[in-house]
Amino acid sequence: MELAAIDLDETSTMELVNAASVIAAELARRTPPESAAACMQLAETLARAGDMNEAALAGLVGVVDSGREVQKWGFPSTQAWLRNRLGMRDARARERLALARQRPRLTQLAARWAAGDLPTGHAATIATAVNRLHDTDCAAAEEVLLGMVDQGFCAGKVAAFGKRIREVITERDDSDPEPAEAKRGYERSWIQATRSLDGGRYIKGWLNAEDAAIWDGTLGPLARPAGPDDNRDLPERTAAALASVLSGGHKATKVTLICDLDTLTGGTTPARLPDGTTIPAAQARRIAFNAGISPLLLGVGGHPLYLGRTQRFATPAQRRVLEALNPTCAVQGCQVPGTLCEIDHVYGWALGAPTDIDQLTLCCGWHNRYKHTHPHRIHITRNQDGRYLYRLHPPDTAAVHTINVSGRPPPWAQAA
């Protein structure tokens, strides 16, 4: 590997990132030295460099987050982008997002972090601790927590003290330190749940018009008085209705097992659950013998046959088939469970697509709306199991031709 002198004043950010990537790739390729003492010294130096890289990453993520760029690429949130494109676990994605959002307020922290004088673990702990504080309290808390770092306290101790700071401020103000709700705007729904000392939770939030309609349609019927002797007020009945929905008590519990007729009649072909988990044939037969059996007729290639187009909305039977085929949202990388998704007409009801089982799939609410407003950024394919897969394309990508399983546009699209 050849190294060339770099004029930092004349080098763009993109060129620096590319150079750092090349150096990181070379380091990863090399075998560590045999000397443990040398490796210890190198590891400490490399860790400080990694902290500075994390500081630079936080700056980039902050610009992406404030500019709402990820929504243009089909991601519902910056955290979802960090999970799917940067491969972060949920906890790490939340941590990196807190760092990016709090970095402009934590000027001392940002300067020390960028200089390699503050480990990323301590920086993330402090950013999380001040996340819900007003600017004045944030500055005071930053001073105190950085002082603890200088005294040699570990990140866990700093986190515990940061929690105590929030409790003291809450007691002082006798109110929630959350910034005014109006700053959030009214475009996106939000819910805040705060744990009480006895293990309960205080809940407050805002639902936009679309989500409020779903709330009313789901909880409204369940929140009605149970009879003349029901002396609960509406808030109490609504809480009970929400608990019923969350626990699944508003609908009959069901387990879907997918298997061939041959399996039920003594064959050895294993069955599977909707999430792909395989079940031995003998165990599948035992489950079937102790449960009701709902047949699902499959055509050539394992594709569900048509159940007819008699109405605009899918039937419960069709939804059960779709949940069996689609363990998650149809969008590649989206992990919203299929049981929580909406039923989507793959090629659009308004374009003439029928409500037939092989023209439907499951899509989470956010991506369903995204598909409707950005149809040219969705590429549709279908695998051998009959499951549709939506792939999102960048904002500047030209219109993409959607295909069905045969590779040709559907008949109604040709007619249009």
TrEMBL record:
Gene3D superfamilies: 1.10.30.50. It holds the Pfam family DUF222. It comes from the Bacteria. Residues 49-324 form the DUF222 domain. Transmembrane segments: none annotated. This is DUF222 domain-containing protein.
